[in-house]
Amino acid sequence: MPPSLTARITRQSGTNFYYAFRILPARKRRAIYALYSYCRVVDDCVDEPGGEGEAGLKRWLEEAYRCYEGRPTTELGQELAAALMQFPIPRACFEQIVDGCRMDLTTCRYETFALLRAYCEKVASAVGLAAIEIFEYTNPATRAYAVELGVALQLTNILRDVAGDAARGRLYVPLEDLARFGVAPDELRDRAGAARRPEVTALLGFQAERARDHYARAAALLPGEDRRAMASAELMAAVYRALLEELRRREFPLGPRLRLSTPRKLWIAARALVRVYAGA
What rounded mean pLDDT belongs to the chain? Predict the structure, then answer.
């Protein structure tokens, strides 16, 4: 049988999450592919050339509502509706995800970390809160884990994509932090060989420490009884923590997006899986 549409979207996206999804049983894997693919197409509305912008966001949110009613109109929606029949994903998760992407149409800078965190919770933590329903957690405290891990993952993405975002006129490093370190927004662009001031590296190092703190908070919040259920989430965390540490090691390059090799990601995932099942 050929792979489903959402399986193809997930694999072709090159997401670091793909291998974490592969360890799931088939019914959960199908559901997480549908969730990820929905998030992907919504994000593409605001990030891709020729994206549909607000019209696309509205159309996909309406499709999510139709999925809850059992009457989707797209192939992706059909797969998402099947997932919603099995797992109690709150409707608010989709509303938050779409609202977060809408912020990318209207907001290109964040004055404070509190404002940036609100954005991270919409575009990342809301996905985590949807995903843990598919992973079938049992302890309500796991929701706090999902929120903190979502923030950590998004902060890692922000650090990895600083230069690319700047080229598109977006800045996800809080302006209060730029002022604190005496860095101008233009200094976060890829300036191809231009000398970089140490203040820029210090600023980005500060952002990395903030991400590290959120990974630590997430780890501390994960209830022991849900540790194995969250194996996929823990694999994602391990891969993104490794990406964060590689960014630190390279002193936060402002060039093409840093990627970990597939063998390295598989090795990191395997080690994380052993730790999860060993209870370490």
Answer: 93
For residue 263, how many other CB atoms are within 10 A of its CB? 8
N- to C-terminal Cα distance for the chain? 38
- ∠ CA 89-124-201, rounded to 5°: 170
Nearest to 168 by CA among 257, 48, 52, 43: 48
Q: Look up the pTM and report it.
A: 0.94
Q: Is the dihedral of CA 65, 127, 233, 10 positive or negative?
A: positive
Alpha helices by DSSP H, listed for the chain, are 5-12, 18-22, 26-47, 53-68, 75-86, 91-106, 113-120, 126-135, 142-160, 162-167, 175-181, 198-221, 231-249, 262-278
- In degrees, to the nearest 5, what angle opens at C-alpha 113 toward C-alphas 111 and 115? 65
User: What letter does residue 34 receive in the DSSP assignment?
Assistant: H
For the residues 244-253, what does the mean pLDDT come to? 95
| CA distances (Å), origin 151, targets 14, 90, 158, 260 | 21, 19, 10, 21
- pLDDT of res. 21: 87
**Other beta carbons less than 10 A from residue 167's beta carbon:** 12
Q: Which domains does the chain have, with CATH numbers?
A: 1-106 (1.10.600.10), 107-280 (1.10.600.10)
Q: Residue 17 above 90 pLDDT?
A: no
Find out whether 174 and 110 touch, Cβ atoms under 8 Å. Answer: yes
